[in-house]
Amino acid sequence: MEDLWPPPSREVADAMRSLCQRLLTETDALVDAFARPSLVAQNDPALLADASLVEEDRELNRSDLVQWLTANIQQPGRRVEPYVGPRTTAYINDLVSRGIAPDFAGAWRVALGIGWRRWLEECVAHCADPDLLVGVLDVSGKSLAQYALDSVAALREAGLAAAMGNAGADAIALIQLIAGGAPMAEDLAEGRLRYRLARWHVGLVLWVDDPDQVDALDEAIPAARSTAAGRSALVARASATSRWIWLSGPGIPDLHHVEKALATAEEVRAAVGRPGRGLDGFRSSHQDALAAQALIIRLGSDRQFTAYADVELIDALTKDRTGARRFVMNTLGPLAEADTTLRQALLTYVQCGFNTTRAAANLYAHRNTVERRVSRANELSAVKVEDNPTHVAAALLVLDIAPDIVATGSS
């Protein structure tokens, strides 16, 4: 790329190289600082609602940061060419196919403001010579500002290229409209999607954490569809790492068959919405599945299969991770960090209606063993199960889904 300012002096170049090497070790913390604010600045509800796209957006932030830092280690103070790799291209294609048009310029303004503040702190801390500090800030300011302009332009070019080459955009855009609540005639939607809407539906989100495992994702789709024998199935590519699926039929689809069918695909994770009927059911079950997926990703859970009906309360409790941890600790006290077998016994006991015999059967344990564990767990718990079983069960469920929430604190 054409250089737009003179190269820095050797002293300035050496200082910039050292600063970038230091910050490269803090990549995760830097991305944490500006990923969410820049995402919100893109001002697109459809993007914010999809946890898979949120993860891809975060990865784009990380890629942009690493590109600038490594380029300035190799050639300090020079103009940095944006890197639009295969993963970024796939992400842009997914956005275009779903009619999502984020405000990348707005996102960059926010990220640049946060990143520049951190860069200033680092420069002031490690550039004792005022002349050197001025030199570093002068060159790095030009480099960062131009990098932001070039990056936004590159993303726009990628979006135009994706729009020109996306033959399936109409179908996914229609699905996006329906899922987002836009008014839609049922017969029109059925005709264009070739999927019957006037029946029961269950929405699923299937995804993988690693883009290199996308083959396993696509192999799992036939397994999920096979549970719809005598029913209809609709599959849509939501992102490079996730797929949206709807199963429908005259009766409520059996989620147990879906869970069993997906159990062998260890790399693939699934979130399932509550069943619903008609166009509204198509929409609400999908929204449930998205919420369940967002919960699992938000809490860093390793659960493979999650039904929203099982975690709706936990979703509400854990919107704020710090508040969720406080709730767990205030409710369970020492039990939160005790042996997991004690917590599992108490949770199962509550879920079985305080019936020790049923709890023992579910835990495949002797009744006396379960009684001892329940008694010990209740002794450790700050809130006793007989005083507030709802709070105790909710706190135990939070730990069941995200066992590290106590250890990680407010991170």
Automatic annotation (TrEMBL):
Domain spans labelled PucR C-terminal helix-turn-helix: 342-396
Domain CdaR GGDEF-like: 191-294
Pfam families per record: GGDEF_2 (PF17853), HTH_30 (PF13556)
Membrane-crossing segments per the record: none
Family assignment from sequence similarity: Belongs to the CdaR family.
Listed name of the protein: PucR family transcriptional regulator
Native organism: Streptomyces misionensis
